[in-house]
Amino acid sequence: MPQDLALEKIRSDKVRAVVEVKAKVAEDLGNEGGEASHQHFLINIDSAKQIAEAVEDDVNRVIEAQENVFLAIRYGDSMGLTAPVEGMTVGAAFDAQGEWIPKDKAYAHGGENMSVLHFTHHPLGFICSPLRCYS
Q1: Could you give the maximum distance between any two Cα atoms of the chain, in Å?
Q2: What is the pLDDT of residues 39-64, one digit of tens each?
Q3: Strand (E) positions, 15-68?
């Protein structure tokens, strides 16, 4: 099953675990095209302002261990942002809110062996790069 479809299944099977974080870009993994385009990054979470109770342990572990988190930003269609997020260069600090998928759940559904932050757009989330905010 393609990774995007696996993550869609996770999202449809449960209540969304929303987190709001302050983070930095560790690596730009480029863009993925297709029906919906995505920007992909590895990020490091500096702190969390809001953490859904269901994912609190995973978020805190990631912060303490400074583990990379996979960030997917959807754009270019009515389900995501209208355009790619500008200013997301390596080392850039940003704020984001979105759905958190813990490491074990992401891996069990075909993702990488790391936690995932996605759905950083309306109606659930947002992302504020050094240049501007998007929702």
Answers
A1: 36
A2: 999 999 999 998 999 999 999 999 99
A3: 18-32, 37-51
